User: Fold TRAP transporter substrate-binding protein from Spartinivicinus marinus.
Amino acid sequence: MKLLKTIAASVSITLASVTSVLAAPIEIKFSHVVAENTPKGKMATKFKELVEQRLSGKVVVKVFPNAQLFGDDKVLEAMLLGDVQLAAPALSKIKKYNKQVQVFDLPFLFDDMAAIDRFQQGPEGKKLLKSLEKRGLVGLGYLHNGFKQLSASSPLKVPGDAKGKKFRIMASDVLVEQFRAVSANPVKKPFAEVFTLLQTKAIDGQENTWSNMYSKKFYEVQPYITESNHGVLDYVVLSSKEFWLSLPADIRPTVEKALQEAIVYGNQVALAKDQEDKQAIIASKRSQVVTLTPEERQQWVDAMKPVWKKFEVELGKDLIQAAISANQGK
Ligand code: LMR
Assistant:
């Protein structure tokens, strides 16, 4: 009997060790739509490096750039189904989960990146992140890209130049109104389609950051880029609540720390790339950068700013006011 017990005990010890050796590492798929050489692309790679260094054998991170796995409209549905664990969509693409995030799309709202930081890290910004939990998503942090510029097939100096032109936009109703305010025609399209739409002249223009226009070669098919800095393109880093809370207690804090470090790094890349990629576009001579005089820029402000009023009820007056106040917190 004693012998039998000893054999049984040793078999179960052996099985336990085999199971732990064979235990598959946790897999985190990080899906995004931009190129690797961008703030988000580099942030994702940094996250992978940090996690795999610190949790070697326990967690693997697979990064899928360039909409290889999921495009704009599908990634969060896929996340809720458990097919992808991390994503960082532009704030302009998640109105389905909370309409108020469209506050970031209001034209000419923020003076600079520091104001955006103050708003995101302040109570209202934190509340917006938290609000996504009701929809099964965990907002793990904001990530910068930068200010948007307007590119087109003809020079855009004053709002009248945009009249009747077709512009691709991200899926935000504020952006629809922003272009209608200058009598242009906005069309919501996924990021992965923009280059071809521009190349085939199915659309006349689009708005994006220097980094996205450079890395996706929009400047090769858009002869003019107006340096308007009229709006912001930032991201929210998301996971599903189900996946995030399922991470073991000895693993989650390390993953979270790696993510926060990767975001800090991504934000540094965003600041640097904003300048570098603009210079690279200028140096390419494929696209002419149109600089606005203060008077010309003011015309765009005057034409687009009435959009704020239109969204006062939907976004909330207080929320808009908090964003405006972030400009004065210098
Ligand atoms: C876009 O669709 O233009 C951007 O949101 C792409 C991105 O992720 O930066």
